């Protein structure tokens, strides 16, 4: 059975967790150098606002697998949520779906993130996270399908990104079973607040506080990026438990 740390359970317990951003084209040596700069529980790669190649993602996740670090991958667009299962077959452990506003978008993310009987993710792919723990060492395509699906459904972590006033207001409704993290996109959220003269929120911190209050009795945690130690400490004091920090923090 798998021996890797269950990050999903740690998230649900509200442990303080740090991740660090990387470029999807990093070599193993570059990734090792990055991870040596801090105590990180996951590494984050983006395809929404950066150049992206599926082969690079597959290779990067292979490096991360060898180093024992989970990868969180932000998909290119909300409308690509139907491809979540495909992206996961390349090796990530976590997915972030940007610009989520509706429960229908959440339902689609859950559907393609989880295997039956939780979701409808298709079974296949030899580069999936931790696959070797459930198959023949000489042929990772020969696996215990049900055991792997059960492991995945208990270990993969799903984040949705709140980037509008509407999403912040409806955070509790969007935090459906199967969602592990509510992440923030602060710049698009600012655009949303600026477009609404009578917005109930005037700052990103007010939005964060509102979502934290809604999630107070929920295993779903709040996730943010922190560019400085001061920002990191402020968010921790507010109650944020999962932070993507700059290298060396």
Q: What is the H-and-E element order? A: HEHEHEHEHEEHEHHEHHEHE
Mean pLDDT, rounded to whole units? Answer: 94
Radius of gyration: 18 Å
In CATH terms, the superfamily is Phosphoenolpyruvate-binding domains
- The low-confidence runs, each spanning 5 or more residues with pLDDT under 50, are none
DSSP E strands, number = 10
Tell me about this structure.
The protein is α/β, with parallel strands linked by helices and 249 residues long. The protein has a single domain (15-245), classed as TIM Barrel (Alpha-Beta Barrel). Helix content is 38%, strand content 18%. It contains eleven helices and ten strands. It has helices spanning 7-12, 28-35, 54-67, 84-88, 103-113, 145-155, 165-169, 171-174, 186-194, 204-214, 229-238; strands at 17-21, 42-46, 71-74, 94-97, 135-136, 139-143, 157-162, 181-184, 221-226, 242-245. It has an eight-stranded parallel barrel with strand order 1-2-3-4-7-8-9-10. The radius of gyration is 18 Å and the shape is globular. The two termini are 33 Å apart. 40% of the residues are buried. The mean pLDDT is 94.
């Amino acid at each position: 059975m798998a021996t890797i740390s269950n990050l999903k359970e740690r998230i649900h317990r509200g442990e303080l967790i740090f991740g660090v951003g990387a470029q999807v084209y990093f070599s193993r040596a570059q990734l090792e150098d990055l991870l040596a700069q801090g105590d990180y529980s996951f590494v984050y790669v983006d395809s929404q606002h950066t150049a992206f190649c599926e082969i690079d993602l597959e290779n990067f996740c292979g490096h991360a697998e060898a180093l024992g670090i989970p990868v969180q991958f932000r998909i290119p667009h909300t409308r690509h949520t139907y491809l979540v299962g495909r992206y996961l077959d390349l090796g990530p452990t976590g997915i972030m779906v940007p610009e989520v506003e509706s429960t229908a978008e959440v339902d689609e993310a859950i559907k393609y993130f989880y295997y039956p009987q939780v979701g409808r993710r298709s079974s296949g792919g030899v580069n999936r996270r931790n696959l070797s723990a459930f198959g023949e060492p000489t042929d990772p395509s020969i696996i215990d399908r049900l055991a792997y699906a059960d492991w995945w459904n208990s270990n993969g972590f799903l984040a949705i990104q709140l980037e509008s006033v509407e999403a912040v207001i409806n955070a509790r409704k969007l935090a459906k079973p199967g969602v592990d993290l509510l992440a923030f996109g602060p710049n698009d959220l600012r655009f949303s607040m600026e477009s609404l003269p009578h917005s109930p929120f005037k700052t990103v911190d007010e939005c964060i506080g509102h979502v934290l209050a809604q999630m107070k009795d929920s295993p779903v945690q709040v996730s943010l990026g922190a560019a400085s130690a001061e920002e990191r400490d402020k968010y921790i004091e507010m109650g944020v438990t999962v932070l993507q920090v700059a290298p060396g923090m």
